[in-house]
Design brief:
The chain is α/β, with parallel strands linked by helices. It has a single domain, classed as Rossmann fold (3-Layer(aba) Sandwich). Helices cover 32% and strands 20% of the residues. It is built from seven helices and nine strands; from the N terminus they run βαβαββααβαββαβαβ. A hairpin with a 4-residue loop joins strand 6 and strand 7. The mean pLDDT is 97.
Length: 240
């Protein structure tokens, strides 16, 4: 695991931009495409904007395929739909072709949406093992990542797949990659900033004894890939 600590979110984003560019270009050079899993929420908005505008000429976007680590079960035009956020801040700027974006079809029931998404991913990888080049993840102040929330069924799930999950505290279903599927990736990067994340981060990367049910982000440990944390000083306030 590599821990990168920055004074400001601006510095964090700048480093992360160059990290994404490097991995993208290496993937395109080695296999002809870059399989990139996006995270939702507010944390990556500035990253997506910068990549698709200021730094757009640094990657051959015609060879990039986009996926989502999880999705909220709201309709695609809803403000909370992760796909819409990525469309507005990334895809529209790049004029990304529709067949390069793998959205979760939330017009389906959650379980059906998860199955359909896994089938779409399987088709893209043409029967080969699903190994994404880069998966971006956020972490909630409850230590959830993707939609692997504390004390939910996804914590114990051992399948390399996509699953639906009911999150009781949010009174809603989500669709998410499972931890075993995430852990097959070549590179996984967490984006974490703010004092509200300090308690969770202390346990997720600081505890020697693992408690996956309470701190699901501890599940993320790539089998043969790289794990990087991009954090600000506020988020590390409680680390030794």
């Amino acid at each position: 695991m590599n821990l990168h600590i920055f004074d400001t979110q601006t510095e964090l984003n700048e480093k992360l931009i160059h990290y994404v560019i490097k991995i993208a270009n290496e993937a395109i050079a080695s296999k002809g495409r870059f399989d990139f899993v996006l995270t939702g929420g507010n944390s990556p908005k500035e990253l997506y904007k910068a990549l698709s505008t200021t730094y757009a000429d640094k990657i051959d976007w015609t060879k990039v395929y986009f996926f989502f680590g999880d999705e909220r079960t709201v309709l695609p035009n809803h403000k909370d739909y992760n796909g819409l956020m990525a469309k507005e801040n990334l895809f529209d700027n790049l004029n990304t072709p529709a067949d390069h974006i793998f959205y979760v079809d939330t017009t389906l029931a959650p379980e059906d949406a998860a199955k359909a998404y896994k089938n779409a991913i399987d088709k893209h990888f043409a029967g080969e093992e699903i190994v994404f080049d880069l998966i971006l993840l956020g972490m909630g102040d409850d230590a959830h990542t993707a939609s692997i929330f504390p004390f939910t069924d996804l914590v114990a799930n051992q399948e390399k797949t996509v699953k639906s999950v009911y999150v009781e505290k949010l009174n809603t279903h989500r669709v998410s990659l499972t931890a075993p599927l995430i852990n097959q990736a070549k590179n996984v990067a967490f984006i974490t900033f703010g004092t509200n994340k300090a308690e969770a981060l202390k346990h997720v990367i600081g505890d020697t004894e693992k408690d996956y049910n309470t701190y699901p982000s501890q599940l993320i440990a790539p089998l043969s890939g790289n794990l990087d944390w991009f954090v600000d000083k506020e988020a590390t306030a409680k680390l030794n």
